[in-house]
């Protein structure tokens, strides 16, 4: 006889509920922060220039020249 005290799973039910809540919170935080493939990527000119230099697409001289142009 249940008498309205839950589903009968006891501590196991509490653990499952806790894990579900923690999982949902984790997914929300991961979605808000982004995981590297976010649609909120910072595509500012300085960031693009840094990435091109890091990939070796431009030389150091070109990098510093373009960086000074962006600062002005």
Overview of this structure, please?
The chain is mainly alpha-helical and 72 residues long. 64% of the residues lie in helices and 0% in strands. Helix 2 (45-55) packs antiparallel against helix 3 (60-71). The longest helix has 23 residues, at 11-33. The radius of gyration is 25 Å and the shape is rod-shaped. The N and C termini lie far apart (78 Å). The mean pLDDT is 82.
Quick description:
Pfam families: SHOCT (PF09851). Residues 47-70 form the SHOCT domain. The protein is mostly helical.
Strand content: under 5%
Give the CA-based shape.
rod-shaped
Radius of gyration: 25 Å
Helical coverage, percent range: 55-70%
- Ranges with pLDDT <50 over ≥5 residues? none
| Structural class category | mainly alpha
State the separation between the terminal residues, measured CA to CA. Answer: 78 Å
* Tally of DSSP helical segments: 3
Mean pLDDT: 82
Domain SHOCT: 47-70
Transmembrane segments: 6-29
Pfam family, one: SHOCT
Organism: Paenibacillus pseudetheri
What does the secondary structure layout of this molecule look like, with pairings?
Blueprint: H1 11-33, H2 45-55, H3 60-71
Give a quick set of tags describing it.
0% strand; mainly alpha; single chain; transmembrane; SHOCT; 72 residues; SHOCT domain-containing protein
